[in-house]
TrEMBL record:
Keywords: Hydrolase, Signal, Transferase, Zymogen. Residues 402-431 have a biased composition (Low complexity). Belongs to the gamma-glutamyltransferase family. Residues 1-27 form the signal peptide. InterPro entries: GGT_bact, GGT_lsub, GGT_ssub_C, Ntn_hydrolases_N. Residues 31-56, 383-431 are annotated as: Disordered. GO terms for molecular function: hydrolase activity; transferase activity. This is Gamma-glutamyltranspeptidase. It comes from the Bacteria. The gene is ggt. The keyword Metal-binding does not apply. PANTHER family: GLUTATHIONE HYDROLASE, GLUTATHIONE HYDROLASE PROENZYME.
């Protein structure tokens, strides 16, 4: 149970945080067969309150299931599945596929992602790794010397897609409906269209130059040669057809069949617009790479923080290990405020850079041990520590803090370019969704095609972009770096879908996009919630800062206004980042009451919905 040291009394919030709902469900066991009502066809009568809601709202409270995504169509897709008796996994796949339609620059069937799933019946947390992989022909030097921006828009950066295999595995293991059924809401949105909002328009405009360099991409996303105007209806009938065929033939169509052949052909020979001067490097992907792809179940990371169990994503993501280590460091400190938040994050990123990647022997257990965290916490003093923070030594033999602790007390661990390497660039966009159902199952799901617009290349006639996930590898040369490319290797991710349990029951689930700032956004929301006394909506809305073992901390203007002077006086320095993250979350308020939360304004605001709204 949660014991003590909260800045806010949570006892009331947590009392009776049962996953069994008073209303409206009576069932307490997840269904083991498909819902009787097919997901295609007319919807069942809407629950009186909350049905037909077309306004995007960032906070929703109620019962019987909840969803939060960046997008109303995607949230509604999930809600539709929940209302028809589907569970959280069914709804999450439906929402993810719909995001592939409405957020095609952040998500899609040719991308990848990570699912953290709480199974209410078994009271267990599972994860599914749907990360893209490098082709067999990729080696440690394949990206060396290539300018980052050139790699982004190339066939070379496209990893073997993971999302479809992940959806199939998730549905088979934990879902109740078929892939075909889960794709129906997305097919409908792709056919009927969605309303172009400012975010979609701006993202298209920001990508217009490179989209114009590919015939297939220009045709789809620059109709008439320009980004679709705000307020217009955007239809993607080719994607609707791709999803329909995927539903009919299953993932085999991608991993061993015709769609795979088209993906490989596009990767190896991108459809460059005649006259374009862009140097587009072809990729190394072959059909055998697609055939070898597997979505993988992995044990989650787990740490205990103030009596709660925090579950996250293990390597190849650094999300679980880095959020977890930082929380452990914070727990070892007598007081936690924004200074401590930044310093703990700095230290955890130093360790992430040195130890975490898709390699054997990541010292995960030690990185997440209290002993290691206590040793690292000794380095946090009154002032910001010198840059860069060196990585620690997670070897199981930990020293107590020297008498005068703080950064000046540790001259024996000097920073070096090798040990204190800056975090390499990662794309700032992807997406995250949370869903929970009437049985108390919970999904936190990060989906990505890496950069906004992926590699910029639409597979001709199929309506979706390819990913550029392989730019998440370290380009090198970087001897000893765990994140160098390799055959069949998965690039290190920062995605951090996170589920927090209290006494074995879900309390909170959250995540965000934002490349390596994902980790700090998740961490900061937890610090806001548990240490700074904010409600979950406040914790998401609060201004953000991100310290990733860089000389300067990036911060939003609101953060600088609130904390800038105080932190600068303690040795921190800042650069402005106009917007960090776009989080989604759900909190279990007790007695079956749910609070779904999205961003009120970042990236145009998100959409929170509940099955039965509280009155
Ligand atoms: N590629 C990033 C990662 O896996 C996520 C995409 C983003 O938000 O930039 O960490």
């Amino acid at each position: 149970m949660i014991a003590h040291r909260f800045a806010v009394p949570l006892a009331g919030v947590l009392a009776g945080s049962s996953v069994l709902l008073a209303s409206p469900a009576t069932a307490v066991t997840p269904p083991v067969t498909s819902p009787a009502v097919p997901l295609a066809g007319p919807p069942p009568p809407a629950t009186p309150a909350g049905g037909g809601q077309r306004e995007k709202v960032p906070v929703a409270e109620g019962y019987g299931g909840a969803v939060s995504t960046v997008d109303l169509d995607a949230s509604e897709a999930a809600l539709k599945v929940l209302r028809r008796g589907g569970n959280a996994v069914d709804a999450a796949v439906a929402a993810a596929a719909t995001l592939g339609v409405t957020e095609p620059y952040s998500a899609g069937l040719a991308g990848g992602g990570f699912i953290v799933y709480y199974d209410a019946r078994r009271e267990r947390v599972h994860t599914i790794d749907g990360r893209e992989t490098a082709p067999r022909a990729m080696t440690a030097t394949s990206l060396e010397g290539i300018p980052f921006e050139e790699a982004v828009t190339s066939g070379l950066s496209a990893g073997v897609p993971g999302s479809v295999a992940q959806w199939e595995l998730a549905l088979r293991r934990f879902g109740t409906i078929s892939l075909k059924q889960a794709l129906q809401p997305a097919i409908q949105v792709a056919r009927e269209g969605f309303t172009v909002d400012q975010t979609f328009h701006d993202q298209t405009a920001a990508n217009a130059a490179r989209f114009a360099d590919f015939t297939s991409t220009a045709k789809l996303f620059l109709p008439g040669g320009a980004p679709p105007p705000v307020g217009s209806t955007f239809r993607n009938p080719e994607l609707a057809e791709t999803y329909r065929l995927l539903g009919r033939y299953g993932g085999r169509w991608l991993y061993r069949g015709g769609l795979g052949t088209e993906i490989v052909a596009t990767v190896k020979n991108p459809p460059v617009t005649p006259g374009s001067t862009r140097n587009v490097r072809p990729g190394l992907m072959e059909m055998r790479d697609l055939a070898a792809y597997r979505a993988l179940e992995r044990p989650p990371t787990k740490i205990t923080y103030r009596g709660m169990d925090v579950y996250g994503m293990a390597p190849p993501s650094s999300g679980g290990s880095t959020v977890g280590e930082a929380l452990n460091i914070l727990e070892a400190l007598p007081d936690v405020g924004v200074h401590e938040y930044l310093e703990a994050s700095r230290l955890a990123f130093a360790d992430r850079g040195k130890y975490v990647g898709d390699v054997p022997g990541v010292p995960l257990r030690e990185l997440l041990s209290d002993g290691f965290a206590k040793e690292r916490a000794c380095l946090i003093g009154e002032r910001a520590m010198p840059h860069p923070a060196p990585p620690g030594n997670p070897d199981g033999a930990y020293e107590p803090c020297p008498a005068a602790s703080g950064p000046s007390a540790s001259p024996d661990s000097p920073a070096s370019p090798e040990t204190g390497a800056e975090t390499p660039p990662e794309g700032p966009e992807t997406t995250h969704l949370v869903v929970t159902d009437r049985w108390g199952n919970v999904v936190a799901y990060n989906i990505t095609i890496e950069s906004t617009g992926g590699n910029g290349i639409v597979v001709p006639g199929r309506g979706f972009l390819l990913n550029n996930e392989l730019t998440d590898f370290t380009f090198g040369p970087a001897p000893g770096d765990p994140n160098l490319p390799g055959p069949g290797k998965r690039p290190r991710s920062s995605m951090a879908p996170t589920i927090v349990l209290d006494d074995g029951r879900p309390l909170l689930a959250l995540g965000s996009p934002g490349g390596s700032t994902i980790i700090t956004t998740v961490l900061q929301i937890l610090v806001n919630r548990w240490e700074l006394g904010m409600s979950l909506p406040e914790a998401l809305a609060a201004p953000r800062a991100t310290q990733r073992n860089t000389a300067q901390t990036q911060a939003e203007q609101g953060f600088l206004d609130r904390y800038g002077a105080e932190l600068t006086a303690r040795g921190h320095s800042f650069t402005l980042n106009p917007e960090i993250g776009a989080a989604t979350a759900v909190e279990f308020l007790g007695r079956g009451r749910l609070q779904a939360v999205a961003e009120p304004s970042r990236r145009g605001g998100g959409s929170a919905l509940v099955v039965v709204p509280a009155r």
